[in-house]
Design a protein that fits this description.
Blueprint (H helix, E strand, L loop, with lengths): L3 H21 L9 H49 L4 E5 L5 E4 L1 H6 L4 H4 L13 H10 L7 E8 L5 E12 L5 E10 L1 H6 L1 H12 L4 E3 L11 E7 L2 E6 L5 E7 L4 E2 L10 E4 L3 E7 H6 L1 H25 L4 H16 E4 L2 E4 L5 H7 L4 H13 L3 E3 L5 E3 L7
Antiparallel strand pairs: 1-2, 1-5, 3-4, 4-5, 6-12, 7-10, 7-12, 8-9, 8-11, 13-14, 14-16, 15-16
Helix pairs in contact: 1-2, 5-10, 9-10, 11-12
Length: 392
């Protein structure tokens, strides 16, 4: 707001009141005692107004300086975003791109204008998009930065391995209003680490395999970590009522062990034919290669447990079941033309324990989903999931 005209008008009004006072004192029909008092009050009011205008003028000047400062800072941070050495994107909660910097456009081999308004999944290879969409939908469940490892495809270009660090921005109601993405091309890093990975693989290959068939309980040693070479293992505990609670699923390349939990009761059971190798905890702590390789595997197990804990906190059983099926699609799902096939066979009892519900209720809901065409089964009784929205 421009205060200068108002300030000038106040000065003119003050001067005219003074002139009017001098003129009125010589008029014979105005009582002599009335004019001094009236004009003194007007003069006082005029002075007060003048002081108020001066203060308002100063405040307006301060506001203008603040606005200029904020505009400068906004431009500075915009420049930092635009010319950052790493690729940055800002999307809405569903992953639609609202902002992108120059490095993001360069990394994805596309003009910035083309990025705006496009889903980030457009740059995921087609067969992997469903799993990435599921991961994006689950970002709202975490209050911390999330790291995703995916493959990205440049427009009319190559496919490369990428590490995505995602931070969710929430409103006062706790709802996610935007996602901020840091994208790094880690293909070169993977090549650099290939010799180290080979050495880890050779360590595993040199060890004797322990084999189990479906339904076997796998013995746990607190001094050893078990590495899954083939098959699926169900990890669970038991509550005070004797009911089993699903804590996680370990497949090929994943690790588990009683040393990774503080639970007094911890059980591992083979869901299929399973092959394992064991590695002593002391070997891992003594080897930087093993420690470096096992850290993301431990993080993966922790994220699994947190996801299952979040699912158990949903209010309605049907809602818990839908979120669990979405979790299973991501963790043990294999894309097929007819849907996502779960590679491990879970019983209704297993699913009920993960949903904190009884088996009869879960069986009823699964039957309903089967009737709706949301789930089906292949010839080996593996569940196949079609697209569905957890929020429904």
């Amino acid at each position: 707001m421009n205060q200068q005209p108002f300030f000038q008008s106040t000065e003119v009004l003050h001067k005219r009141l003074a002139d009017l006072y001098q003129t009125a004192t010589v008029l014979p029909w105005v009582p002599s005692e009335m004019l001094p008092q009236a004009f003194e009050e007007l003069h006082h009011t005029s002075k007060t107004l003048q002081l108020a205008v001066e203060e308002l003028y100063q405040q307006n000047e301060e506001l203008i300086r603040t606005q200029n400062f904020l505009a400068t800072e906004h431009q500075r941070y915009q420049d930092l975003f635009e010319y950052a050495p790493d690729a940055y994107l800002v999307t809405n909660a569903l992953g639609t791109i609202h902002e992108a910097n120059q490095m993001a456009a360069k990394l994805l081999n596309v003009d910035k204008q083309f990025l705006i308004g496009k889903p980030i999944t457009n740059f995921i290879p087609l067969k992997e998009r469903e799993q990435v969409r599921s991961k994006i939908n689950r970002l709202s469940e975490s209050d911390r930065n999330t790291e995703l490892f995916v493959r990205l495809q440049q427009l009319h270009g190559d496919i490369f391995n990428a590490a995505l660090t995602v931070a969710a921005v929430r409103n006062q109601q706790g709802e996610v209003i935007s996602l901020r993405w840091l994208i790094r091309n880690i293909t070169a890093r993977n090549k650099w680490e290939s010799s180290e990975i080979k050495s880890i693989s050779s360590i595993i290959r040199e060890r004797p395999l322990s084999k189990y068939i479906k339904g076997d309980n796998i013995p746990l040693n607190p001094l050893k970590i078990l590495h899954v070479c083939r098959g699926w293992v169900k990890l669970s505990t038991f509550c005070e009522t004797g009911e089993e609670v699903l804590m996680g699923l370990a497949g090929a390349g994943m690790i588990f062990g009683s040393s990774m939990t503080s639970l007094t009761i911890y059980q591992a059971k083979a869901l299929s034919e399973v092959e394992l190798v064991s590695i002593h905890v002391s070997e891992i702590t003594a080897s930087p290669h093993l420690s470096h390789n096992f850290l993301p595997k431990i993080n993966q197990r922790l994220q699994q447990t947190e996801s299952l804990l979040a699912i158990s906190g949903k209010r309605q059983v049907q809602e818990r079941l839908r979120y669990l099926l979405e979790f299973l699609k991501q963790e043990i799902g294999e894309p097929l033309p007819e849907g996502i096939r779960l590679n491990a066979r879970l019983t209704h009892e297993d699913i009920a324990s993960a949903c904190c519900a009884n088996r009869v209720t879960i069986t009823r809901f699964l039957s309903k989903l089967k009737q709706l065409g949301v789930i089906s089964f292949d010839s080996h009784r593996h569940m196949i999931l079609k697209d569905f929205n957890c929020s429904k």
